[in-house]
Design a protein that fits this description.
By secondary structure, this protein is α/β, with parallel strands linked by helices. Helix content is 46%, strand content 12%. Strand 8, helix 17 and strand 9 form a beta-alpha-beta unit. Helix 18 crosses helix 19. The termini are far apart. One of its GO terms (biological process) is DNA-templated transcription termination.
Amino acid sequence: MYNIIQLNDKDLSELQSIAKELGIKKTDSLKKEDLVYRILDEQAIVGATKKVAAEKANEGQPRKRSRINVKKEGDKVYTATKDKAQKLEANTPQPASATAETVKEAAPAAVTPPTEAVAEASAEEKTPKKRGRKPGSKKVTAKTEEQPATETKETVKEEVKAEAPAKPKPQKAKKEETPATPKEKEVILPELEFSGETEDFIPIEDLPSEKIELPTELFGKFEATKVETPAPVQTPAPKFQPRQQRDQNQKYNNPRNNNYNNPRQANNNNNNTAAEGEAPANIPQQPERKQVEKPYEFEGILTGTGVLEIMPDGYGFLRSSDYNYLSSPDDIYVSQSQIKLFGLKTGDVVEGSIRPPKEGEKYFPLVKVEKINGLDPGLVRDRVPFDHLTPLFPDEKFKLCKGGYSDNLSARVVDMFSPIGKGQRALIVAQPKTGKTILMKDIANAIAANHPETYMIMLLIDERPEEVTDMARSVNAEVIASTFDEPAERHVKIAGIVLEKAKRMVECGHDVVIFLDSITRLARAYNTVSPASGKVLSGGVDANALHKPKRFFGAARNIENGGSLTIIATALIDTGSKMDEVIFEEFKGTGNMELQLDRNLSNKRIFPAVNIVASSTRRDDLLLDKTTLDRMWILRKYLADMNPIEAMDFVKSRLENTKDNEEFLMSMNS
């Protein structure tokens, strides 16, 4: 403990070291004077805490103090009368009075005249009936005083017997008295040995008397226990042991350190056993441990799902589709070890358990991976990369018509003249205001209704915000959009994440359909973002800018052993922009299905405004059965001489009068 003068004389570094020893934090920012007062305050707090802890420890041992209290009274009497033991051979009340006086000196407030009378009466009767161990109240004090008197008397008799073993008469008298108080003798002899040990002497005046009171009812129970307990076998060793040897034994056999040789403690244990079930108040109540409330763990309760985006440093985040796969507060952190363990890639749809961020963490971390792309993580780990999958021509047609008059006319026209298969790379070529967005919506709803196993993504790039809202509300598909008021970097980023997600799902065997509106504006965005290469095509298109949109459109394919990626994109023509013409020319030969819309049909309000003659699908023989293929061959030969308006009028009038396409084809014979 340091005082303020000692602390002021020390350097700042010494004060800081003292403060660290005391557990004071942030000492570097404190001045010397503030640090001195902080150290003084901390010393005071530590001292007070230790004092309170010591008091609580003492309060938890009230019964132990009571035993020391009785024992030390006996020690004082024995030490004071040790040399005059022969004078007290006759049974006189002198030891009782002397003992009473000793007890008075120890606790004067607890001694009263009735107590002295009780002590004298007990000395005359020579049979101590009560052994009080708790001098807290008057009754307890009276009972406590009886014990030293009797102990002193019996002690003197034992000493006389040990010093003069040749006298037969006193020995007989003592032998006669022995069965009267066998328990007291056995208890007293070790106490006399213990009395010679003065190294750990504790004066009774130093012990608090108000903390060691016992209820009066317990003494009757203790006495009943004494009467019922059978008398232990007495060992005659102390009778034949010389005084010098006894003094030697007490030096080495300290009953404080040897509980087996302490019969008083054994007697105390018996009393505790007897009163265990009847007097729970006798047991000191330990302070209840306050349970520190741990914060509730949400680990394993919360689950999160998102599309993985791996950062250049190796870790990743699960992006939410609610924010179009961009950075958001809902992002879930995925560690680098988890990415390597499960073989995760950018675009994987990961579902797993998450937990709230701890102190110092910013994101919700992923705790356990439960599913990857809807499959077990063990199956996904050994998948074949998308680039190494074998592409095939589409051989399974999307059924756009259920049958009946409820089918949409646009879907029936597309299903007949330009069938769409799983893995189709379709291009809808359209002028402005020809109804291409509505046509895409009808096709999407038809696929969703007839093929629920297909996962559809509606990707709207550089479109109007109101169209995004309408598409999200009217199409049963995932809508990802980047409106025209967003920068080109955002267009490119969203398109890249959607394509990676589709590839990862195809690797796991899923059928995915992407509706892209429009690929022309996506190519414009790539042209804006790409660095200048110095080679510029006509219309201001960079020579390398169209490579990435070509990769996007070229990813559509049918996989040999299951899984397919279908992309239905729109391309703008006749917009007055030379760049759009160049982009369309680049994509013109890449698709394997082309559906052309005519502005003249839309101007005459003929919808769907499909140019039937110019629309077709490559290798449609893999999608249609032979009967349908033959009938479509005849129908196309018949419509080839008509202009787009005449052909659409003819087909539309026939389709409106039939229930489905099969009925229309059957009616061709008539």
